[in-house]
Amino acid sequence: MSTTDDNKTIARTFYDAYNGSDLQGAFDTYISQDLINHTNGGAMNRDMWMGSDLAAKTAIPEQTMTILGQAADGDTVYTHWVLEGTFSTGELFGMPANGNMTRLEAVAVDVIRDGQIVEHNAIGDISGFMGALAGN
């Protein structure tokens, strides 16, 4: 397996963890402590990203992450994914659970070095996702 294939496998394994019960473990294994996160204008560091996604996993416990496509160029991996589920538990981003179906489709651009994602950017339909959470 080439380095490019290894990097694709690392990214895929990380995103597949959204379907399992150990998302925290996936962050610990695959996301560098020194992550540079460009998502949302760079407003979220590693801990904020992890906290946000763990909160979403709690509020949308049966969420499914589907990888629609993936490409790589050296240490940069592009992963097109969709995350779907029912907002059924507790609260998320200040909104109470309402039973609505949610869907977030995005492309993640991850730079991988030494087996970990060291730089991340995700471009997706956040407004559509937040609208579904709010019941719009």
Describe the protein in words:
The chain has helices at residues 3-16, 23-30, 39-42, 46-59, 126-134; strands at residues 31-37, 64-73, 76-86, 91-92, 95-96, 101-113, 116-124. With 136 residues, it is an alpha+beta fold. A hairpin with a 2-residue loop joins β4 and β5. α1 (3-16) packs antiparallel against α2 (23-30). The N and C termini lie far apart (45 Å). The model has no long low-confidence stretch (mean pLDDT 94).
Relative helix content: 25-40%
Order of helices and strands: HHEHHEEEEEEH
Structural class: alpha+beta
Distance between the terminal alpha carbons, to the nearest Å? 45 Å
- The dominant shape is globular
| Total helical segments | 5
Output the radius of gyration.
Answer: 15 Å
Instruction: Give the spatial strand order of the biggest sheet.
Output: 1-7-6-3-2
| Mean pLDDT across all amino acids | 94
How would you sum up the major sheet? 5 strands, mixed
Number of strands: 7
Q: What fraction of the residues are assigned to beta strands by DSSP?
A: 35-45%
Uncertain stretches of 5 or more adjacent residues: none
Please tag this protein with its features.
136 residues; alpha+beta; five-stranded mixed beta sheet; 5 helices; 36% helix
List the helices and strands and how they pair.
Elements: H1 3-16, H2 23-30, E1 31-37, H3 39-42, H4 46-59, E2 64-73, E3 76-86, E4 91-92, E5 95-96, E6 101-113, E7 116-124, H5 126-134
Parallel strand pairs: 1-7
Antiparallel strand pairs: 2-3, 3-6, 4-5, 6-7
Helix pairs in contact: 1-2
